[in-house]
Structure formats: C-alpha cells, structure tokens
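User: Okay, second chain of the day. Same drill as before: sequence in, structure tokens out.
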Amino acid sequence: MKKPDFHILVCNSYRVAGDAKGFCNKNGAADFIQYIMEECNDRGIDAAVSSTACLNVCSQGPVMVIQPNNFWYGAITEERIDEILDALEEGKAVEEYLISE
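Assistant: Same drill. Structure tokens below.
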C-alpha cells in the first residue's frame, strides 16, 4: 500500500462508551469529512481523511488535524477548509486558524 502524503483527521466527538456527543459533532464535523475528501480529490492532494474520537479540545471545535505537518485547526467551516487546503497545496499553514504552536 502506498502511504498518502497527508492524513487529515476530523474530530467527530465519538466517545468510548457510545455515540458522538461533543461540540464538534453537534457543529457539523461529520459533514466536513465528505467535503474534505472531495476537495482533496479535486485539487490532487494525496490525503486519507478520517473521523476521530474526541480530541479533547472541544472549546475550539470543530477541529481538524493535518499530519504529518501536525497542524491543528479549530473552528473549521467549509470556507476555512478551502483556505486551509489552499495553503496546504503551497506547503503552508493558515496561522490564524491554528490552535497549537
């Protein structure tokens, strides 16, 4: 298997004991997964996109993490995703949306 260039993780607030209950899920994170997959495909970005359990930064959600760059983005929206992917194509981060240093 060829490893993708990027792994994009989208917090979906899943909990060990059951259903998604957190902020990210309640604020549309599930819908972002398909959107990100389609955008990456359209742009030719080689990325695997995965939904995750709670990433424990609920106050800054919905949260998206891009590996191997270790970019943690908060308060994502479709518009912000577009900006983030534009920057990723150029090998950069959108500093104003990062929630980690």
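The chain has a mean pLDDT of 91.

User: Thanks, on to the next one.
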